[in-house]
Design a protein that fits this description.
single chain; 219 residues; alpha+beta; Arc Repressor Mutant, subunit A; SH3 type barrels; six-stranded antiparallel beta sheet; two-stranded antiparallel sheet; 44% helix
């Protein structure tokens, strides 16, 4: 893999894993990238040398302003491709993220903006995340994890965090997408799965997966 592509993947992964937190542990980054902590640490050193991240020993990494702008450029490409794949090629929702991640590295600035214009400059990707504009500005979305919702409160799914194939295939099977309305009606003992009401149907969803489903109350 070219060094530039590898850097892009790291920066985007740090951005996605941060999710509003200050620091991303290197072990978590390594797990996301599917590599050893030693390999992740080596790349972290190189990214720090290029002023793309800061690394606080034993705590984690954070993007610098330069690193954040680079990450948002990659995120824009990926989320625009996601819209194209879902809306025009009718690729299954669960597969869109993985395919768009492969396309993001082969897309230059001119093609990115041509794609945005073709799509009508969408603002939300198929998994509910805001799409950065061409200047790297991105809208803030207020949302909370489904596993923190009070019982009997109706909520609407806003976005899916880190929407990898296995996670999205599971949610797709359950019928959970951005825009889906849910009510948490029960929780099994010892941090067991939640029972949710989706329309007239009761479904179950594990606690960890529920933590990746971001929701807001239905007004």
């Amino acid at each position: 893999m070219p060094e530039s592509e590898s850097r892009e993947m790291y920066l985007k992964s740090i951005y996605e894993l941060a999710n509003g937190e200050a620091l991303v542990p290197v072990s978590l980054l390594a797990n996301r990238m599917g590599i050893s902590p030693v390999s992740a640490t080596e790349m972290v050193k190189r990214l720090e040398e290029h002023n793309l991240i800061t690394h606080t020993l034993y705590k984690g990494v954070a993007l610098t302003d330069t690193g954040l702008q680079r990450a948002l450029t990659v995120v824009r490409r990926q989320r625009l491709w996601g819209r194209f794949l879902a809306d025009h090629l009718k690729i299954r929702w669960s597969q869109v993220y993985e395919i768009s991640c492969r396309l993001e590295h082969a897309t230059g600035a001119d093609v990115t903006e041509a794609l945005a214009n073709f799509l009508g400059n969408p603002t939300i990707c198929p998994h509910g995340h805001p799409i950065p504009d061409e200047n790297g500005k991105i809208a803030h979305q207020a949302a909370m994890p489904l596993n923190q919702v009070d019982f009997e409160e109706e909520v609407e799914v806003v976005r899916i965090n880190q929407p990898e194939l296995i996670l999205c295939a599971h949610l797709e099977e359950k019928g959970i997408f951005p825009g889906t309305k849910l009510i948490v009606i029960d929780e099994a003992p010892y941090n067991g799965p939640f029972t949710l009401l989706l329309g007239n149907q009761e479904i179950t969803l594990g606690r960890e997966i529920s933590g990746r489903v971001m929701v807001h109350p239905v007004k």
